[in-house]
Amino acid sequence: MKELTQYDIDERLESLITRAWHDKMQHFPAIDAPDVMHLLNQVGGQAASSSRGGKRLRALLLHNTVATFTPDNSPAKHSDEIIDLGCAIEIFQTAALIHDDIIDAADTRRGQPSAHRALSQFTQNADQGSGLALMLGDLLATLSIRTAHTSSSVLAHSSDIFHAFLDMHDQVELGQIMDISMESLDLTHTDELHSSIRATYINKTASYTTIAPLFMGMLASGHPQAATLARSFAHSVGEKLGIAFQIHDDLLDLMSTPQKTGKPVGGDIREAKRTWVLSHALRLTQPSDRAFLIDAYMRETRSEQDVEQIRSLFISCGAIEASITDVENLWTHAAQEILAACMSMNVSAQDTQNFISFCSRFVG
């Protein structure tokens, strides 16, 4: 199977979204309303715009999993469909991020105006812009399912792959509900908070970032052991790798720059997100600092002074360092499990090392 790059995914993803929107417009009932058609075209353009800028790690993970576990004596098959299946995950992510930005009232995404902000600016109406973005997210979620269904139909274990894609949808949506529900949690119950954060990270992030690509990729490889090993491998490795990925993302939000992340530093604090770092901080801070954190996170808004004070607390109490250690430990265990799976499935030493090296991109 030929090596795939981020730019290959970018090109195919834009083609799938643009073609799908063009097909919808071709079959759209003719109406004599130029303003409406102009707005529809603007929404279609936003679909392509919102999909740009990602690293395509999910699509690349699926492709690398297929390449790693396809038996050496088996010819490469259905490479275009495997690319499209990876693109289906990326399309779903775009839909999820559009909805996420509406929920969080986020102004930017990947260095550009978020979809609802861009459409609000175009229409000069915030409610209309948010409504259009909401429906755009729904349309892209549907497109992701259509793309997954078409691409998986020719692959090994096609039915299992497609149902895994649908399960992924459910998990992310439940994870989003859990994320919103955590806003009402009592922050004095640190064990309950940490357990809820872990479950949310698995459902909202790991489910589609690592678990689904690993599971679908191993099934699509056609390896004779895939049917019996894929699920346990994907969940065990994918949970660890996905949680580590989300913690790393939380740390970037605190310690990186807007130029690197495409969004303001400290956004999770401004939005009072219940994060892994916060969970550590509530356990590690002194009582007076803990009381300040709880009060700040339960308030409707936090000032810029609050944001800086909380960031400083996260550093001084050791929450940042503890989270970095967690990422390192999760990655170590995930890498060991990848190595064991590759050995049991007779993957060559070089292919094993290449796969582990690729997976390390999720944590740094």
Entry keywords:
mainly alpha, 2 strands, Farnesyl Diphosphate Synthase, 364 residues, magnesium, metal ion binding, 1% strand, 2 domains, transferase, Polyprenyl synthetase family protein
Summarize the SSE layout with pairings.
Blueprint: H1 6-26, H2 34-50, H3 57-69, H4 79-104, E1 108-109, E2 112-113, H5 115-123, H6 126-152, H7 158-181, H8 190-220, H9 226-255, H10 258-261, H11 267-270, H12 276-284, H13 287-298, H14 304-316, H15 319-344, H16 349-359
Antiparallel strand pairs: 1-2
Helix pairs in contact: 1-2, 1-4, 2-5, 2-6, 3-4, 3-8, 3-16, 4-6, 4-7, 4-8, 5-6, 6-7, 7-8, 8-9, 8-12, 9-15, 12-15, 15-16
Explain the overall architecture:
The structure is a single chain. With 364 residues, the protein is mostly helical. It has 2 domains: 1-155, Farnesyl Diphosphate Synthase; 157-363, Farnesyl Diphosphate Synthase (Orthogonal Bundle). The protein is built from 16 helices and 2 strands. It has helices at 6-26, 34-50, 57-69, 79-104, 115-123, 126-152, 158-181, 190-220, 226-255, 258-261, 267-270, 276-284, 287-298, 304-316, 319-344, 349-359; strands spanning 108-109, 112-113. It has a two-stranded antiparallel sheet. β1 and β2 (112-113) form a beta hairpin. α3 (57-69) runs antiparallel to α16 (349-359) and α9 (226-255) packs antiparallel against α15. It is flat. 41% of the residues are buried. The model has no long low-confidence stretch (mean pLDDT 94).
Short précis:
GO terms for molecular function: metal ion binding; prenyltransferase activity. With 364 residues, the chain is mainly α.
